[in-house]
Amino acid sequence: MELAFIPSPSRGVLYLGPIPLRGYAFCIIIGVFVAVWLGNKRWIARGGRAGTVADIAVWAVPFGLVGGRLYHVITDYELYFSEGRDWVDAFKIWEGGLGIWGAIALGAVGAWIGCRRRGIPLPAYADAIAPGIAFAQAIGRWGNWFNQELYGKPTDLPWALEITSSADGRVPGTYHPTFLYESLWCIGVAFLVIWADRRFRLGHGRAFALYVAAYCTGRAWIEYMRVDDAHHILGLRLNVWTAMFVFVLAVIYLVLSSKKRPGREAVVEPGASDGEADGDDESVGEGKEGESVGEDKEDESKADEANDEAGSAKKT
Asked: What integer is the mean pLDDT of 142-151?
């Protein structure tokens, strides 16, 4: 007898008149806003200007969405280009299907373009937004809950996820809520990066590399639990191999970067302290003006003394 389980929503879309409001899309949008908000706070704390993170996100987010969709379509091409499938569905991003590996890779290209236009080092920007990306992933995973997708093996645990849909080969029942596992893992990764960044003053892209390594660690075992169709290589799902490969790259970068460029960037955004410099100039100007006034008063007192002496001489 099932005592408890996580229910799935009866539908993943609500209609406001003719306008569809999709839960998956809302989760992605909220995640982006959280990432930009937290990234902005961290960027300012590092000495950058307010609004810079959002300006660069204008480049990074669209590139990331395209990259995430491309990775999904390429690695699951049979869902869109096999017999009986409609290739137009490959463009229906609102129905789910974003690969984080492609999103981060192409999103980094967009961020690089934005950073280059502002004269900002990409590693410093990546460090600032790393925890926000993890939080965004944690929120975005709930979009899979709305779509009743990407769940794990059957289970009767109290926190099992109930799948009610039978579309696309689903079998109704209770399964491991891998979306929830990954969401909680991403929250832990975000707090880990924030703590390590404060404790060790990570710089030059190392906070971002830590995020990547920590996320890959969790993604590997969570991916192994999933039962949806996927390509396998030597008995392991493709995304498990991807997670292991990216993990190794992140660790190598952490080690080499720590040796080659220890510490943190002194300046993350050129000209961000112009306001302070202007203030200094104003204070200097006030000082000079004060000195000038003092000199004028001193000259006046000397002239008075000379007049007094001249008057005394005439009297004598």
From this structure: 91
